[in-house]
């Protein structure tokens, strides 16, 4: 069954991760190196990646040359440089790392840069739709599209961004890449659908959570990495390395996102915190906390719907080691990502990808 295979593949690396288990080791950081594996001085992955992304948002806006003016304004709304551009950065670094591994050519090809744009466009379309589903009012420190223009128009704006991304994808003209990136759209929809349901047993709940995490967040990163590897190098071993790196970093990224929902403040995040509990969602910190406080089961089952449930659940999480356990799990995914990417030949971009996986763990927004 494809579902079971996916859960197995998400968890195969770490014995017992699909069954919720506690980690007893000290939470040593993945590593703060002063030198990278290729022996060069540390390079900021964001600075290195931006060399190939100058004009990213202008180029995306060119893809959105649409009328009428209102639809254009709505579709362009989030391409204002306020996002972290985490996905395009990973994509161009992966492109250069794979090109360098293959034939020492380090430049990013035009088709690979297009994948970076497409990844950011798919991501943004999904944010616009997500905010409609969650009835969210703020994102990136500003009002959401649905808040300003209303739900119906927001759904259409998301659709339009997705269609512009599909046109750009078709222009690359590579059927393998089209199929890799179309899989992402299916995963996003299935991930969002999974989130609408809940599971009764603790172990089922954890497997369900990891599968949702892969589909909603990691699939886009994994498959965009794979797409640029296909465009830069014919070796399927390299495609798998790129995919595995993106998958592991993507899962870690979401686990930390779920931690930040408890530990950060809304000013920093640009959106309200404890948002997951308010939406009825039990993420990593809650699932771990529930092992220490089984009375949380009832709250999870009723999706924190009674008055006071959200506050009680939050207190349980903060009294438990749910945040530390989730962070430790994210560290393990990052270690796995580093193990994968280290199979490529040394290059500044490969080292920047190693460093990037470390910044995922230390980010505060
Ligand atoms: C229209 C393609 C499409 C999908 C519809 C709604 C939906 C199905 C999927 C939702 C997917 C989603 C919004 C997942 C959340 C992923 C996530 C961690 C978002 C936050 O990413 P950041 O922190 O955001 O990189 P910025 O603002 O920096 O870009």
The counted number of beta strands is 2
Classify the beta-strand content into a percent band.
under 5%
| Global outline | globular
Quick check: average pLDDT? 89
The helix content, as a percent range, equals: 55-70%
Query: How many strands, what sense, and barrel or not for the largest sheet?
Result: 2 strands, antiparallel
First-residue to last-residue Cα separation? 37 Å
Helical element count? 18
Order of helices and strands: HHHHHHEEHHHHHHHHHHHH
Question: What are the bound molecules?
Answer: geranylgeranyl diphosphate
Structural account:
- The chain has 365 residues and is mainly α.
- Helix content is 69%, strand content 1%.
- The chain is built from 18 helices and 2 strands.
- It has a two-stranded antiparallel sheet with strand order 1-2.
- Strand 1 and strand 2 form a beta hairpin.
- Helix 6 packs parallel to helix 9 and helix 10 (202-232) packs across helix 11.
- The chain is globular, with a radius of gyration of 20 Å.
- Residues 1-9 and 25-35 have low confidence and may be disordered.
- Residues 83-84, 86, 122, 125-127, 129-130, 133, 140, 158, 162, 185, 188-189, 192, 216-217, 254, 257 line the site of geranylgeranyl diphosphate (GRG).
Detail the topology: elements first, then pairings.
Elements: H1 2-11, H2 45-50, H3 56-63, H4 69-76, H5 86-103, H6 110-134, E1 138-139, E2 142-143, H7 145-149, H8 151-172, H9 175-196, H10 202-232, H11 236-263, H12 266-269, H13 275-278, H14 284-292, H15 296-301, H16 309-319, H17 322-341, H18 348-362
Helix pairs in contact: 1-10, 4-8, 5-6, 5-10, 5-18, 6-8, 6-9, 6-10, 9-10, 10-11, 11-17, 14-16, 14-17, 17-18
The structure holds geranylgeranyl diphosphate (GRG).
Residues 83-84, 86, 122, 125-127, 129-130, 133, 140, 158, 162, 185, 188-189, 192, 216-217, 254, 257 line the site of geranylgeranyl diphosphate (GRG).
